[in-house]
Specification:
The chain is of the alpha/beta class. 43% of the residues lie in helices and 17% in strands. The chain folds into two domains: 7-221, Alpha-Beta Complex (Spore Coat Polysaccharide Biosynthesis Protein SpsA, Chain A), CATH 3.90.550; 234-306, no CATH class. The chain is globular, with a radius of gyration of 19 Å.
């Protein structure tokens, strides 16, 4: 009988041959070794399959799954978790690098805080050559350890608002953190719309605390093909999540607010606490009314232009 690993790591990948080996090597070199590595190949057309098969043949902890077509990042991310068996789960990007003590440090932080559903480390930005990116702020964090879920929610929302004003990879350090599998199963995972990772983080923060490892253990790569690069077009971002929805009207802000509200409603909070948070969403709609209207008009014009 095969022993169940404590940690499952999922790498969703699509045409990631350029940086994939570095990402896998950084996982295999972890000081904590009780893990399984699940690689879900979303119909890659480059050397991704060849690279993965070579690694899987040399390490029994690696489980490689290849699919015939690209179903989008949302499906691929969620698929790695569906296949996972560990008590803890971590997503790993196919172009990022984890420092050797990442798993050990985050596991220790999580186990020392029973109410935590997620543990994350500080991060830093690197370019396609592995060199630091000047001006990329990745270590500006706010505390998310309040015992009051409403306080945690408002803290996280402040971070969302601040991140829109500069190039920042802070959210990636959370979403690529070490997550309690039982908590993740209570969420809707990653939806097929822009900003779905934000919604997932909100669902998790309403379930429990996020604990921080005050050390830079995650190197997040930024390059021309990065989806997270800030100047990516809306249509390209939507296609990244789900190719089948590429041409639909993409109301990012409208969808985000609607999904945040639904996350609050389905959370385990009391009715009164849910009402308090829903009031804050209504206020957000009021303050963003011009932006929301502008987004609607812009998307309708884009849709008409494409016809």
């Amino acid at each position: 009988m095969i022993k169940k690993p404590l940690i499952s790591i999922g790498i969703p990948v699509y045409n990631g041959e350029k940086f994939l080996s570095s990402a896998i090597d950084s996982i295999l070199c972890q000081t904590f070794q009780d893990f399984e590595l699940i690689i879900s190949d979303n119909g890659s057309t480059d050397r991704t399959g060849e690279i993965c098969e070579k690694y899987a043949a040399n390490d029994e902890r690696i489980r490689y799954y290849r699919y015939d077509q690209n179903r989008g990042a949302a499906w691929n991310f969620n698929n790695t978790f569906t296949l996972a068996t560990g008590d803890y789960f971590k997503w790993a990007a196919a172009d990022d690098i984890c420092e050797p003590t990442y798993l050990e440090s985050c596991l220790k932080a999580s186990q020392s805080a029973p109410e935590a559903v997620l543990a994350f480390s500080w991060g830093d930005g690197i370019d396609d050559q592995g060199m630091p990116i000047k001006g990329l702020v990745l270590d500006d964090y706010l505390s998310l350890t309040s015992s009051d879920p409403r306080m945690r929610y408002h803290t996280l929302m402040k971070m969302f608002q601040r991140s829109g004003k500069r190039v920042s990879g802070w959210k990636g350090t959370y979403i690529f953190g070490l997550i309690q599998s039982d908590a993740l199963r209570k969420t809707r995972l990653i939806g097929n719309y822009i900003g779905a990772d934000t919604t997932l983080l909100i669902e998790l923060i309403l379930l429990g605390k996020f604990c921080e490892v005050p050390d830079c253990l995650l190197l997040m790569r930024r390059h021309d093909q990065s989806f997270s690069w800030p100047d990516a077009e809306t249509a390209s971002k939507q296609e990244f999540y789900d190719p089948a929805t590429k041409n639909r009207i993409s109301l990012q802000s409208w969808t985000s607010l609607r999904k945040i509200a639904s996350s609050i409603i389905r959370s385990p909070l009391s009715f009164r606490h849910k009402l308090d948070l829903l009031k804050s969403v209504v206020k957000e709609v009021f303050w963003l009314r011009k932006e929301l209207w502008g987004e609607l008009v812009s998307e309708i014009k884009r849709k008409r232009t494409r016809k």
